[in-house]
Design goal:
By secondary structure, the chain is an all-alpha fold. Helices cover 73% and strands 0% of the residues. The protein has helices spanning 3-20, 24-27, 31-40, 45-51, 56-76, 85-100, 104-114, 120-137, 146-166, 174-203, 207-219.
């Protein structure tokens, strides 16, 4: 499939999902909701099934990606140059939730489906894609071990904040913003503690090196001891 064809396919899926969202609160992430959305957006049922052949899983996966792409587009309109990384991440999470504000029940229904035992791995993959998109969008290009720790920590933030947001009825979602700020602050403390721990470890003597030095002083060549692990 060419890039142009892929873009056209994504555009059609977007249009169908957007039309289907109005029916999710009543029919869930079901073929019935998809059929109603197809009727509203002038797709035939065959076309709808072709766009989402796996049904619910395809629909929820595209909905999550749709929300991610809207979030990234929103970030593109914000001047991030003078912001610290944690401020950029905070804005990204807020933008994603703002884009979903009108579709809370669809999100709730989707999470209920993803939390079923047979769907949890699928849900983790979607969450990973979201946090990976966030880190990339805010300019993080790390390729070391922190690549995974950052995504793991942010996954906890996004997951817990989304659950809190679903039941937040405060004006302008102020309570969700406060909750998110606390979670980000916790992650920052964990990250700082980890960096301090790594700094301490680099200053600590290597016990294997000490053993090797002692052995060399007592026995000469360490290899004569028959234990290459000390070398």
């Amino acid at each position: 499939m060419t890039v142009a064809a892929e873009d056209a396919d994504v555009e059609m899926r977007d249009r169908l999902i957007e039309a289907t969202l109005d029916h999710i609160p009543f029919d869930g992430w079901s073929e019935l909701a998809l059929s109603a959305g197809a009727c509203d957006s002038e797709f035939s049922l065959n076309e709808a099934n072709h766009l989402f052949p796996a049904g619910t899983s395809d629909m929820i996966q595209h909905f999550s990606g749709w929300a991610d792409r809207r979030m990234i587009a929103g970030l593109g309109a914000v001047d991030l140059s003078e912001m610290r990384t944690h401020e950029r991440v905070t804005i990204a999470v807020e933008l994603r939730l703002e884009g979903l504000e009108a579709h809370k029940e669809a999100v709730r229904r989707g999470l209920s489906w993803l939390m079923m035992p047979q769907n949890t791995i699928f849900g983790v993959r979607l969450l990973y894609r979201t946090v990976d998109d966030i880190w990339y969008a805010v300019g993080d290009r790390s390729a070391d071990f922190s690549f995974y720790t950052k995504r793991g920590l942010l996954a906890g933030v996004v997951g817990s904040t989304t659950l809190f947001w679903l039941d937040d009825d405060s004006d302008g979602g102020v309570k969700t913003s406060e909750f998110l700020d606390r979670r980000i602050a916790e992650v920052m403390r964990i990250h700082s503690a980890r960096r301090r721990s790594e700094a301490v470890k680099t200053k600590m003597p290597n016990p294997l090196r000490i053993l090797r030095d002692v052995a060399q002083k007592r026995y000469g060549s360490v290899r004569t001891m028959g234990d290459s692990r000390l070398t």
